[in-house]
Design goal:
Radius of gyration: 24 Å
Number of helices: 18
Shape: globular
CATH topology of the largest domain: Rossmann fold
Structural class: alpha/beta
Number of strands: 14
Largest sheet: 6 strands, parallel
Helix content: 40-55%
Strand content: 5-15%
Number of domains: 2
CATH superfamily of the largest domain: NAD(P)-binding Rossmann-like Domain
Strand order of the largest sheet: 3-2-1-4-5-6
CATH class of the largest domain: Alpha Beta
Distance between the termini: 58 Å
Bound molecules: nicotinamide-adenine-dinucleotide
CATH architecture of the largest domain: 3-Layer(aba) Sandwich
Length: 443
Amino acid sequence: MKVTVFGIGYVGLVQAAVLAEVGHDVMCVDVDEAKVTNLKNGVIPIFEPGLAPLVKENYEAGRLTFTTNAIQGIEHGEIQFIAVGTPPDEDGSADLKYVTAVARTIAEHMTGYKVIIDKSTVPVGTADKVRQVVIETLKKRNADIPFDVVSNPEFLKEGAAVSDCMKPERIIIGTNNDQVLDLMRELYAPFNRNHDRMVIMDIRSAELTKYAANCMLATKISFMNEMSNLAELLGADIEKVRQGIGSDSRIGYHFIYPGCGYGGSCFPKDVQALIRTAENIGYQPTLLQAVESVNDKQKHKLFSFLQRHFKGDLKGRTFALWGLSFKPNTDDMRESSSRVLMESLWQAGAKVQAFDPEAMEEARRIYGDRSDLVLVATKEDALKGADALVICTEWQNFRAPDFDLIKATLKQAAIFDGRNLYEPERMAQRGFTYYGIGRGASV
Ligand code: NAD
């Protein structure tokens, strides 16, 4: 099938590559010229495991093409995916300007029937807005061309995006049109052979499903972080509590890790956007507000440990920081806890020596050259001349470091672990002052 994807970010590029891999003829359109040129030259703009070879092979096979020419993209596919960003507006609601801009462009240039698929995360009612934009634009052209709008939210996880798209747990399709549904079944058939993963519903339910999923996951994290704060004050160990509650099959072990807060491009903005949606219709989303506020506080947790440990005397100190991305296996630093920490440290007059396996370039892009941020080549280099070590991301190769080397290199044998990678008792035996999240008497 001929498919066009608008927006080649984490979602659009992965989805496009995966659709091409199963044989579809996919054209990607983006307004970012540098991105398109780079992709044509084999330079992948993001780090995502397994993505680079997939893009390369499908590009070379001619099934995956890149362009900045929207008209070409609109001509290409009967199916037109919208996978552009929906960043938070000033008040936290989802900014739909990129989505409606694409819808308008499609309507300005379409000459035959199109299925417009909302793949971006968009508030309930957006498909209606998209439909309205297309109708109005076609009217201006005096054109009477049929089209349909479908909601097909994306559930991939950064860091496992390729496998999530290749083997989706569910494919949510919001439509009330059987012919469109047949087309969607054909499009996704290669991903739907083992068992039927398609969940069909009305458009508004599909739109809300995406927010409900992300808000549920964010709720689990904030709940555990609230428990971790209680554990700390009550002298209990949240890691024991986690295992205790995870063993209940109704709760399960997934996604109940306490830490220094959730980040990324989805949870913070989607929780906020659903709060705004609720408020706009006169509903007080008490639970969602609490989820957000617990998370905001949690992102300051490591800084408050540092302040406590150094008795407020952070000026002129240097801290080693392991982990900049909001989670492992990605270079994405959007809303990352490391940013909140670094910015607080800089404000307090401290310097950061940071290492991340994939996000160094992204950190350079965000912060540019500044004297209080030194990006170093290895995690060991980050320790040199540093007062203490802080960990913000649970990358695999941080899990079993050379503790003797850490101790010998740091000025103080102190570790502030935002992801509970180590055991407090072992750390004490090794001679460290160790701060974890919710680790009771040890902090
Ligand atoms: P992104 O910022 O990585 O990419 C968006 C791309 O859209 C950019 O390359 C940008 O240049 C392009 N763009 C903007 N306006 C355009 C236009 N008019 N025409 C063509 N391209 C245009 O965003 P992302 O992380 O891929 O997220 C996209 C959407 O998917 C968002 O709504 C997000 O909430 C949702 N989502 C993201 C994830 C994730 O893990 N990143 C997961 C599920 C859903």
